[in-house]
Specification:
The complex is a heterodimer.
Chain A (H helix, E strand, L loop, with lengths): L3 H29 L2 E2 L5 E8 L2 E8 L1 H10 L4 E2 L3 H4 L6 H9 L3 H10 L2 H31 L4 H16 L2 H12 L4 H10 L10 H28 L4 H9 L4 H29 L3 H6 L8 H9 L7 H35 L1
Antiparallel strand pairs in A: 1-4, 2-3
Helix pairs in contact in A: 1-15, 6-10, 6-12, 7-10, 10-12, 12-15, 14-15
Chain B lengths: L13 H28 L4 H4 L6 H5 L1 H7 L6 H9 L2 H33 L2 H15 L2 H15 L5 H25 L3 H9 L4 H9 L4 H17 L2 H6 L7 H15 L2 H36 L1
Helix pairs in contact in B: 1-15, 5-15, 6-7, 6-9, 6-12, 7-9, 9-12, 9-15, 10-11, 12-15, 14-15
Classes of the chains: A mainly alpha, B mainly alpha.
Chain lengths: 345, 297
Amino acid sequence: MVPNRTFFFFILPSALAMLIFIAIPIVSVAIQSLYVEHEKVLIAVQSCTPFGCTESVGVDDSATAKLRQEQPLGKFNGLGTYADRAHLAVAEVSDILGHNAGFWDAATRIYKLPFYRALVFTLAYALLVTPLAMALGFAIALAVNTVSPLLKGAVIFFSLLPMIVTPLIGSLMVYWMINADGVIGASLQALFNDPNLYLKASAPLTWIVLFAYGVWTNAPFSFIVFYAGLQTVPRDTLESSMVDGANRFERVRFVILPHLAPLATFVALVQLMDNFRVFEPIVGFNSQAHATSLSYSVFSDLNGQFSQLFGSAAATSMLTILGVLILLAPILLRTYREFSNKAAA
Amino acid sequence: MTAAESDLPGRRPAALIFATNAFVVLWLVAAAFPFLWTLWGSFKVEGDFFSRQSFFDAIFGAKTYLQTGSHFTLDGYYGAWVVNRLWRASLNTVVVTFCVTVISLTFGTLGGYALARSGRRYAFWLLMAALVFRAMPHITLVSGYLLPFFELNVWGVLPTAIIVLVAINQPFTLWMLHSFFLSIPKDLDESALIDGCTRFQAFRLVVVPVMWPGVVTTGLFSFLLGYNDFAVTSMLLSQDNQTMVPKLASFLGSIEETGKVMYAVAAVVSATAPIFAIVVVFQRQIVSGLTAGAVKG
């Protein structure tokens, strides 16, 4: 055991960095989410002409600037931002739930609200891309395991590229290819003989393209991990299963899959965390009209054309963090139980 | 005794062999094609890369020949590097990624070593906290930085982005190096302690000389995080201090109208080149880094 004092000095730089730039910012986000930007200070202006005076309302720029300077957080809004139309839209949702023409009508109307739109896409992306990419990665690992070493080397080399390429750059490359004038987009038009076919024209097609891109970037990680795992499958078990008459499919199902299950949990956890914050593909594909994510909503609030909406961004951030914690909860609970069992034993 | 399935007795049917090979080649093409296509196309003019008539134009460069007198052109690269001043952004990228990697590894080796050797309850809780921090979407953290950074007047400069990226990188670095130090036998540094070294001396004289394989692997991922980042650098750096990725994004908006897409294509290829080099040189370390965390736990 390392003495507490020594441990403290070793961990200090790392812990300090995480405290100041991860833990405190989360608190800062929580506080910001309770405030909202000042409205512009209005002032009655009297403009007089020889024919009389008229009163009009104008913006008092200096007073507005002064107010913003004095209270940069804005004015206190409580949980108002969370409830407003751009976030949980409490009033709108309860109205829709009260008056609707069936489930489908309610669902489509709720989907039109910005926060739910982003939430639905983010969840769909994380929950679909993760298992699909893992399945593809597993299939590649099984197949690569049986091909010649030369092909193996090439596959491992090129498989690393989609995974570690800068996400924004990878999505731009694919975006240009599926463009109506790009190689895939134009080929599909020719193939279906439909000059108006454009992969970004409708929401369903945009979703499919983004999911396909997600699988393309996520599959290599599963592939590499599962391929390494395959090398550790005990030969005895495989052989005895063959003696027992297991065919190829049964060997995969009853020997290899159980052996890889712990790895699969690990891969699923990592990929789920990463996919839940899907962001760069939305920017790269310029797809926010048809598909947008929670991270992208925060980004666009912060990147506003006229002003940065810190309160709104912070509220979406808090809701996103809540989502991450819900996704992580089962894993954290399990690790905690394992740890306390180990400590008790 | 372990073995790949291919070593086992039992013949595979020819159809299966064909199908697996075809599948592997298909994936190989899917993985590599976008890179090769964009690389090749970056030496063409826009009319070829986004060809309305036939994508053979993009391969042979028919319009490129008509417009420039050669089948290959460096116009895109000139536009990106000289006209749009990508060279400046690339210098910023070098500074940011170098500092992020070095500082991350310094903090990470100290912390990871302490966590691996501590064995106390709070070390476990720190690792759990790091796991939660690892899952935080970067953009949500950025929304917490902006207002305080404006107020403190530290927004827009490279050191701010560097220290933020170091912090965001710490959870992963700590986990990776923690599991690496667990694989170094405890007896090694404990015998140094018995010989009268302090903990830090034991770390410096005994552990540091044997830790480089783990540090190199972790360093690669720190480098990639710094290099690939878009959320932090695009929001925290001013126009002049932008690194390559946000710079690229910033001239995406303007190129669509002015017909300078090829600048962006050339910039994309330029920014991919270092990644490609990393894979060529460090393929083994990357693969071992990816599997290390997974196989151990």
